[in-house]
């Protein structure tokens, strides 16, 4: 007889599910919260797990995250139970490695059908990740390659178009995926307890987003928000972990990327501590130009330049005043005043929210 673990904090719901499963018949093990569910899973080694999402202390995402790291339970079919039918919940759960969703309320036929299907598929589930599968091979090659060779990822993983200001993840949430920016712009933002924000990094065309928390196996400490309408490829965390476990070269590449990011952030912090706000504004202008506009291949892929036209530095930069302020680490009023000074000196041109750099060498050489 198959054993099913039901993790549900609502007593009535927990009892109803158990009665239906026992009539099927299945052996049913019950847990009233996430922590108890993990203990019962490790003790009973169930054939399938049904788990509520919204639970106190440890929610369903946390349960799945912990169980997927346990070699003895990583391949057990896992079905989320939720009263929330929002797309973001479905995507987050599936990216984390869930096998299916049941949206409350559901009837006995729906419940038993989902259980039977997942138990059947579970028989064919490999006990270990297949590190040399076509999908993982493509992912490995993309991670180890240069940015302009990574777009093959979008042939292997789902790509979604998001609107400006969409948040890929927020501070405090657990990593469920690695994100590849096929097209668009992203800012990483940290906020203090007073709500003051600072943009720690800008990412765009060809960049991978969200690997810091994934590597540390800890919640995100920042927020990833889109600056433009963007195309984003979503790579499940299970595939990344498979490569990290079986491919040392991939782990080394992520470590190099992380070390480079830390070094760049330390340099920005040092400059922020000792440079004038005027110099920091100039540095922010150059940073945006380097990140989003300095590669001719990126311009052409976005339709900015024809193939036979060489790159020049007259492409307008576009950020809101608030984003310029968060990037510089100064008040919006101060940043606007300094931008006006730079325009008066003939170093930049301002047209609404667009800024054109007229003399990059002088901006880079500002001493005060």
TrEMBL record:
<dbReference type="Pfam" id="PF13545">
    <property type="entry name" value="HTH_Crp_2"/>
</dbReference>
<feature type="domain" description="Response regulatory">
    <location>
        <begin position="3"/>
        <end position="119"/>
    </location>
</feature>
<dbReference type="InterPro" id="IPR000595">
    <property type="entry name" value="cNMP-bd_dom"/>
</dbReference>
<dbReference type="InterPro" id="IPR039420">
    <property type="entry name" value="WalR-like"/>
</dbReference>
<keyword id="KW-0238">DNA-binding</keyword>
<dbReference type="Pfam" id="PF00072">
    <property type="entry name" value="Response_reg"/>
</dbReference>
<keyword id="KW-0808">Transferase</keyword>
<dbReference type="InterPro" id="IPR001789">
    <property type="entry name" value="Sig_transdc_resp-reg_receiver"/>
</dbReference>
<dbReference type="InterPro" id="IPR012318">
    <property type="entry name" value="HTH_CRP"/>
</dbReference>
<dbReference type="InterPro" id="IPR018490">
    <property type="entry name" value="cNMP-bd_dom_sf"/>
</dbReference>
<keyword id="KW-0804">Transcription</keyword>
<dbReference type="InterPro" id="IPR014710">
    <property type="entry name" value="RmlC-like_jellyroll"/>
</dbReference>
<keyword id="KW-0597">Phosphoprotein</keyword>
<dbReference type="GO" id="GO:0006355">
    <property type="term" value="P:regulation of DNA-templated transcription"/>
</dbReference>
<protein>
    <submittedName>
        <fullName>cAMP-binding domain of CRP or a regulatory subunit of cAMP-dependent protein kinases</fullName>
    </submittedName>
</protein>
<keyword id="KW-0902">Two-component regulatory system</keyword>
<dbReference type="GO" id="GO:0016301">
    <property type="term" value="F:kinase activity"/>
</dbReference>
<dbReference type="InterPro" id="IPR036390">
    <property type="entry name" value="WH_DNA-bd_sf"/>
</dbReference>
<feature type="domain" description="HTH crp-type">
    <location>
        <begin position="275"/>
        <end position="361"/>
    </location>
</feature>
<dbReference type="Pfam" id="PF00027">
    <property type="entry name" value="cNMP_binding"/>
</dbReference>
<keyword id="KW-0418">Kinase</keyword>
<dbReference type="GO" id="GO:0005829">
    <property type="term" value="C:cytosol"/>
</dbReference>
<dbReference type="InterPro" id="IPR011006">
    <property type="entry name" value="CheY-like_superfamily"/>
</dbReference>
<keyword id="KW-0805">Transcription regulation</keyword>
<dbReference type="InterPro" id="IPR036388">
    <property type="entry name" value="WH-like_DNA-bd_sf"/>
</dbReference>
<dbReference type="GO" id="GO:0000156">
    <property type="term" value="F:phosphorelay response regulator activity"/>
</dbReference>
<feature type="modified residue" description="4-aspartylphosphate">
    <location>
        <position position="52"/>
    </location>
</feature>
<dbReference type="GO" id="GO:0032993">
    <property type="term" value="C:protein-DNA complex"/>
</dbReference>
<feature type="domain" description="Cyclic nucleotide-binding">
    <location>
        <begin position="146"/>
        <end position="221"/>
    </location>
</feature>
<dbReference type="GO" id="GO:0000976">
    <property type="term" value="F:transcription cis-regulatory region binding"/>
</dbReference>
């Amino acid at each position: 007889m198959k054993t099913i673990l039901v993790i549900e904090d609502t007593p009535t719901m927990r009892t109803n599910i158990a009665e239906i499963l026992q009539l099927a018949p299945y052996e049913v093990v019950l847990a009233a919260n996430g922590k108890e569910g993990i203990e019962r899973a490790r003790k009973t080694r169930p054939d399938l797990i049904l788990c509520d999402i919204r639970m106190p202390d440890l929610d369903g995402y946390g349960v799945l995250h912990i169980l997927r790291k346990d070699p003895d339970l990583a391949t057990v079919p896992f079905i989320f139970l939720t009263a929330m039918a929002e797309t973001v919940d479905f995507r987050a759960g599936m990216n984390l490695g869930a096998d299916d969703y049941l949206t409350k309320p559901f009837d006995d036929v729906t419940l038993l059908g989902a259980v039977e299907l997942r138990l059947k598929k579970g028989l064919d589930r490999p006990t270990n990740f297949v590190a040399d599968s076509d999908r993982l091979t493509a992912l490995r090659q993309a991670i180890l390659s240069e940015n302009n060779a990574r777009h093959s990822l979008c042939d292997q993983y789902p790509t979604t178009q998001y609107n400006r200001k969409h948040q890929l993840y927020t501070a405090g949430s657990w990593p469920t995926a690695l994100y590849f920016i096929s097209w668009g712009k992203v800012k990483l933002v940290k906020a203090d307890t007073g709500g003051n924000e600072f943009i720690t990094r800008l990412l765009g065309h060809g960049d991978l987003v969200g690997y810091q928390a994934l590597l540390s196996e800890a919640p995100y400490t920042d927020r990833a928000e889109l600056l433009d309408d963007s195309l984003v490829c979503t790579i499940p965390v299970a595939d990344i972990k498979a490569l990290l476990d079986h491919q040392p070269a991939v782990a080394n590449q992520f470590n190099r990327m992380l070390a480079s990011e830390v070094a760049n952030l330390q340099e920005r912090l040092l400059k922020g501590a000792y440079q004038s706000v005027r110099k920091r504004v100039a540095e922010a202008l150059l940073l945006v130009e380097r990140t989003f506009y300095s590669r001719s291949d990126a311009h052409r892929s976005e339709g900015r330049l024809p193939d036979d036209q060489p790159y020049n530095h007259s492409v307008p930069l576009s950020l809101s005043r608030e984003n310029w302020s968060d990037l510089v680490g100064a008040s919006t009023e101060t940043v606007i005043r300094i931008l006006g000074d730079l325009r008066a000196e003939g170093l930049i041109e301002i047209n609404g929210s667009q800024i054109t750099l007229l003399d990059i060498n002088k901006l880079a050489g500002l001493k005060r």
